[in-house]
Amino acid sequence: MSAQVQKSPLDTDSQGHKQYAESAPNGTLCDTANKYWMLVDKTVVAVPKSSNTNPDIFTLMPNRDPTAVEKGKPVYIGIQNKDLCLCCEDSGGQPVLQVKDKKIMDLYHNGDKSNCFRFYQNKSGSDTHSFESVAHPGWFICTSPHTEEPVSLTDKRGETHFTDFCFELK
């Protein structure tokens, strides 16, 4: 289930022509151990899938820069209706995953010169994808095998953390 950009009417211009905005699909993200991503106090954590789970809805907005496709499909990962996006920044010499105040449409229209908000989305299985940091190549978004721990980054795919995720359209 890959994110495809769709055009939807947003407004009309001064001549009455419809203006179109790019939109991307929204959905939940779940690791292969059935833990959903949820925002808790500006930290994304992985919680077990259950009838009580109310996962946040994420947007995978494609990057408009046509030169940024060498390792996969570059996307921005935003949290729907919150003006928050995932970001990969350096902290003490190691990349860390953070949630930053940023409108995903600002990134889409204006780009991300630092690349810290961009992730390569790659198909990793029949229904799963991985997300590699563009700013820190070789570092992937991951979840812990333990529940309710923060979604983070790893440079050791397939060892102790989950790096494959299902994107379930909503």
TrEMBL record:
<feature type="compositionally biased region" description="Polar residues">
    <location>
        <begin position="1"/>
        <end position="13"/>
    </location>
</feature>
<dbReference type="GO" id="GO:0006954">
    <property type="term" value="P:inflammatory response"/>
</dbReference>
<dbReference type="GO" id="GO:0005615">
    <property type="term" value="C:extracellular space"/>
</dbReference>
<comment type="similarity">
    <text>Belongs to the IL-1 family.</text>
</comment>
<feature type="region of interest" description="Disordered">
    <location>
        <begin position="1"/>
        <end position="24"/>
    </location>
</feature>
<dbReference type="GO" id="GO:0005149">
    <property type="term" value="F:interleukin-1 receptor binding"/>
</dbReference>
<dbReference type="InterPro" id="IPR020877">
    <property type="entry name" value="IL-1_CS"/>
</dbReference>
<dbReference type="InterPro" id="IPR003297">
    <property type="entry name" value="IL-1RA/IL-36"/>
</dbReference>
<dbReference type="GO" id="GO:0071222">
    <property type="term" value="P:cellular response to lipopolysaccharide"/>
</dbReference>
<dbReference type="GO" id="GO:0019221">
    <property type="term" value="P:cytokine-mediated signaling pathway"/>
</dbReference>
<dbReference type="InterPro" id="IPR008996">
    <property type="entry name" value="IL1/FGF"/>
</dbReference>
<dbReference type="Pfam" id="PF00340">
    <property type="entry name" value="IL1"/>
</dbReference>
<dbReference type="GO" id="GO:0006955">
    <property type="term" value="P:immune response"/>
</dbReference>
<protein>
    <recommendedName>
        <fullName>Interleukin-1</fullName>
    </recommendedName>
</protein>
<keyword id="KW-0964">Secreted</keyword>
<keyword id="KW-1015">Disulfide bond</keyword>
<dbReference type="GO" id="GO:0005125">
    <property type="term" value="F:cytokine activity"/>
</dbReference>
<dbReference type="InterPro" id="IPR000975">
    <property type="entry name" value="IL-1_fam"/>
</dbReference>
